[in-house]
Give the backbone structure.
Amino acid sequence: MYQSDFTKFMQEYLASNPQVDSDRQALRLTWWDRQPDLDDQRRWRESRVPQKPYVYQPD
């Protein structure tokens, strides 16, 4: 089965540096696996400014 040079490099790198995978998982938990704050989402939607049809045309 074909593997690109990058895939081979990453497999070798991760095999020789196992802490990278645990760091990656910890950072994923920090940013992605969180419960959304519904109040923040509501405020973002309310504070949104509608975009003009042609943004480069001056008023």
Residues 5-47 form one domain. The CA atoms of residues 23 and 29 lie 10 Å apart.
